Every structure is written in C-alpha cells, then in structure tokens.
Amino acid sequence: MSAESSVIIHKEMKIKERYINSMIRFAYFLQSWLPYRSTKRFIYNLLENESYPYKRYFDYFMLTVILSSIAILVADVKKPVPQWLDNYDLYAVTTLFICEYLLRMWVYSDIHTKITEAYEEHLIFDTPISLRTLAMTILKDKWRYMTTPSAIIDLIALLPSYRGIRVLRVFILFRAFKMLRYTRSLSSFLEILKYKKTELLTLLSLTTFFVFIAGIMLYVFEGNKNPNIHTIFDAFYWALVTISTVGYGDISPATDEGRAVSMMIIITGIGLISFITSVIVSAFGEHMQVLKEERLVQDMGKRGKITVICGFGTMGRLAAKGLAAEGHTFVVIDKNPDIVQEAQALGYHTLCADATQSEIFIKLHIENRISHMLALNSDERLNALMTINVKSLNPQVHVTVRCKDPEMIENLQHARVDHIVTPEEIGGRIGAIYAENPVASDLAFSIIGRKLRTQAEAFTVASGTPLENRRIAEINPDAFKLILLGVVRPGGDREERFIFNPPDDFIVTANDRLICIGYDFALEKLRKEVSHVAAA
Q1: Which of 106-115, 153-162, 321-330 has the lowest mean pLDDT?
Q2: 197, 212, 441, 497: which could join 434 in a potential S-S bond, CB 3.0 to 4.6 Å?
Q3: Among 242, 262, 288, which residue terminates a domain?
Q4: Rounded distance, CA 452 to CA 82, Å?
Q5: Is 443 part of any domain?
C-alpha cells in the first residue's frame, strides 16, 4: 500500500471517528435536554396514552376530520365538490394524516437511546461502533412499527388524496378503519375477538372451504344450464350468499343437483353462524369484565385525587355512602366477585382485585392520583398487608386502617399508618358520651348523619393561600358564619398537636388544619379561601 493511500485511509477514519463522536454527543444532548423530552412525552400521551386527560379531545378532533374527509370523497363521486372543500381534503387533511403518521413513528422508539446504548457497549466491552450495524438496528426498529396493522392502515389512508388516479378512491375505506384508533368501544370489541382468534380463523377456513366446494359443484352442474351463471366467480358469489343465509335471489339453482347443493350449504351455513355466534358470546362473557375494569382504571386515571376503599363490609359500606354523599371520587376494591357485584348494584366504581398486590395501585396511578386508602376488611392481617403495600409505593397516601388487636396496632404504627379505627372503642366512647350528655351526643349524630344542615369539616391551609401566616383575629371565622373548634398542627416527627379554641393572636401556617362547624354554604366559602393561591 502506498503512502498516499495510507494517508487517505487515515483521513477517512478520522472523519468517521469525528462523525461518530458528534453523533454520540448529540444523542446524549437529546437525552438530557428537558424541552425535547417533555415535548416527546406530551406527543406520546396525546397519541397513545389512554389515561392522559386530553387525549379524548384529540380523538374527537381526529374523528371529526376523518368523517369530514369521508363525506367529501363520497360526495365527490356523483358531483364535484366546491374547490375550497377539495383543497381542504387535499392539503389540510392529508398534511394532518402525514404529520400524525410521522409523529407516531417518532414516539414509537428513541433513536438517541440506540446510539447511547451502542456507545456504552463500546466502553464496557471495547467493541467497535459500526455505523452500518447501528443504522440497521434503528431502521429495523422503525420498520417494526411500519409493519403493524394500524400503521399500514394509516399509510394506506393517505392514498385517496391523489385524485389523479381514481382507482385509489377505494382506499377511502381505510380512512374509516382509522377511526378504530380513536373509538375505544370498537377497539375493545376487536380486543375481545383477539382472544378467540384461533376459533374464528378455524371457522373462517371452514367457511372458505365450503364456499369453494359448493361454488365448484354448482358451476359443474349448472355452468351450461343456468343463464345467471357465466363464470366461476358467479358460482362462488352464489355459494357465499347462500351459506350466509342472505339469499338475494339473483342466482337460483335450475337443476335438481344444484338444489341439492343449495340444501346442503344452507344447513352448513346455519351451523356455522351458530358456531360463530357462540364463539363471540363466550368471548364477551369471558373478557368483558376485564375490559370494564381496564376502562374504569383509565377513567380513574383521568380524574383528580381519588380514595380507595379496600373491603366492602359494614364499615366499607358506611364509608362509601359518606363519600358518595360528599361527592368524592372513590373506587371499591375487593377480590370477592359477589361483594363487587353488590357494590356495583349500589352505583359505586368497583374493581375485583387483590389489594395486597402492587399492580392494581400502579394502574390507578398511586404516585399522583390516590390521596386516601381505607383498609376496612374484618381480617386485620389483610389490612396490614394492604397498608404496607400502599406505603411502600407512595408514603404520602393517607392510610386509615381498621384494627383492634393491640399488637397489630403497634406494628401498624411502625408502618407509619396515618389513622387507626377501632370500631369497639368508638362504640364504647359514644355510649359513654351519650350516658353523660345525651344532647351533645344527639347533636354529634345529627351532624354525622347529615340530619341537620350544619356539619363539621377540617380544612388544610395550602401554601401561598390568603390564610397562610395570618392571625385568627385576621381570619375572623365569625365573618364566615363558622365556629372554629381548633387547629391541628402537624409536627416534624409526624405527631400532630391539637390546639383547642386558639386565641386571637394564634398564627395559622401552611398545612395547619382548621376544624370548623357551620352551614354547608359557609364551609364552601372557607374551602375556597384555604385552597385559592393568592395572586403574585
């Protein structure tokens, strides 16, 4: 090899190395650049994340665009549409579909992740970085998306825009198929049928076989005797119409042999339809409950803070009734299907699941959606497992547990439970209060049972609200037509301190809870004050 060739090869290697280094630096830059990551996460949520609250608005918009495009193309078959409608379909709709297709391909996978993985493998194992291998890996990853049924439908849906080739208008049907992406009911139906794919494919094969045999037999028997049968396609068409029990009547057998074939294929068609119906019904029976629960989980994920009730015994029913009366969003979780049906009959959101497992809480977005969990089973060990499960996933969730075993109570306190309810102790204390002061007891029961318009409520003062760092005299509960019973102040060691009837110079700080009694409308007025952040 000459010295000149060696210099050229060395320069090429330097250029290649410089290009690889630049590509790696850019990949790491994208990986750490917050605007890029947040934009991609937003696009992904809008296109793919069913629990994203704004996705449904995007779905409604896309459905409107698809239906308008179909209406334009159908109207244009008989009579030319106005030019502005033609331009809207040709430019606006097509551009939107192209952008959506490219964005879906973009969020399907991260190219920069493939590059950084190849570089880290190079550092660990000292393997050379091959641009060709890296490019093939990236292309295969994108090709995997492009060959999915939904991506193929998206691509074919672009073809009707090219009006120069009128035969492409048949692909207008694929724009209708695009609606499967944006209608959860249709998607759920197809998802159910997936579970019976083997049975349905078997029945389709049998149907195709019988249509093929019956069509050939009819063509052999009546190809030269029946004036309505000109080609083998006519015979196949007659066989399919007959086996489906539709019977248009445009083609009828003219010979005894043809009628015998018709009788056999009609009986076969009735049997096949019965089989198909039973397969679909069984699929719905087996999986509809699962889909209902998945839909509920998605809907819960779109709401604000929710409360989870684990256990639907006597205390669970009372808690659900109270939360429903307050208008709070909650879901009842129990692994007993009969209990779940009882809760459903009362109109509550329910999930048939094991609350000792983490999966159900992860689906419900425990990291930012669940605010409270009530473990109210009669089995105290079950309540303890649920508590440990929830606190391990998100320590900020307020957990209330039913328990009466002193040893178990001590263990729950170590698990940082927020509140422990002992039904027997509560009942005994209420009985003692009633014996000493029946009037006060009746008033308490009236407030709890909402027999009076007056009720008691605790308000947490949020940071940045007008009530923060103000004296009781400045807040002036009398102006709200409320009685301030006291203030609950959290301590640094999580032990709370209750200040009964605080003095006028007592200063309210963030996270303090004001315990008030008053009318509903007065409590609502204070609720707005403690939650509304003051303007800067």
Answers
A1: 153-162
A2: 441
A3: 288
A4: 66
A5: no
